[in-house]
Amino acid sequence: MSKVINWTSTIPDSAQGRLGITGWDDFQRPTFPDDYIIEPTLHRDDLDKTHDHYHCPANKNWMKNRYTLYTPIDIHFRVDSKTKMIGSDKCNGQDQFNRLFQVRNGWWDGDYPEVEIQYLHLFWTRHKKVWVEFTGHPSQHNFEVVSGHFPISNWLRPMTIGMVIKTFDKDILIKRGDPLCTVRFFDNMPHKTSEFKLERSIPEGKHMVRRLWQDREFKDWQPFKSWSIIMNRLNKDEEGTCPFQLPF
């Protein structure tokens, strides 16, 4: 029997969201109507089935529980290499730009700039030791999605789409329905993982409010230091004493 992964998506709309901080209310009010949101699909279903590797058992196993996430709107932007500025004519003013794009200090300290698309996805589950892994999609060429993974059963935080931009001084258009990234869910070792299915819902309950708030605040006040907290919770979970189990 498949284990359920709950999910919802939104573009921040609260006063905090406009400052790059996600408020709880953002997930109570999804940005787009139910019949406009493009549901995630199994990643295997949007690939070319004529390739030999599509039938390879190793590739089939790697594709297990992997989904493609899509953009619900046209995202159009351009990075100017001379001014080191980013702009978008699809956003209605600076306020809307700040809701969709997060440009952090030091975003262009390296050879390529890095931004975040704040079409946020929140995943949660009642099951223990469940991880989400996010990676890019083969169709993307102008940018690389920043990959990573974390246990959604122990760390409640929305997932932004981090991008390392590889194309300068040229319009970049991600059309409605284009892939934003892929996500994969697993527990245990990948080759022994359970089957998962996605169900869209609205997060509720005081426990979830507190966890989302505290996990987000810790990440904002102590950037890049959350992994020890995540691993400590995971170890407690394995010992059967995790105090953060969600009530269902």
Helix content: 10-25%
Counting DSSP E segments of at least 2 residues, the number of strands comes to: 14
What percentage of amino acids are in beta strands? 25-35%
Overall pLDDT level? 85
Tally of domains: 1
**Class by alpha and beta content:** alpha+beta
- CATH overall fold name: Deoxyuridine 5'-Triphosphate Nucleotidohydrolase, Chain A
Which CATH-level-2 architecture? Distorted Sandwich
Helices, by number, come to 5
Biggest sheet overview: 6 strands, mixed
Please identify the top-level CATH class. Answer: Mainly Beta
Look at the structure and name the CATH superfamily.
Deoxyuridine triphosphatase (dUTPase)
- Secondary-structure element string: EHEHEEEHEEEEEEEEEHH
As residue ranges, the low-confidence spans are 15-21
Radius of gyration based on Cα positions = 18 Å
Cα distance spanning the termini: 18 Å
Q: Which term fits the overall shape?
A: globular
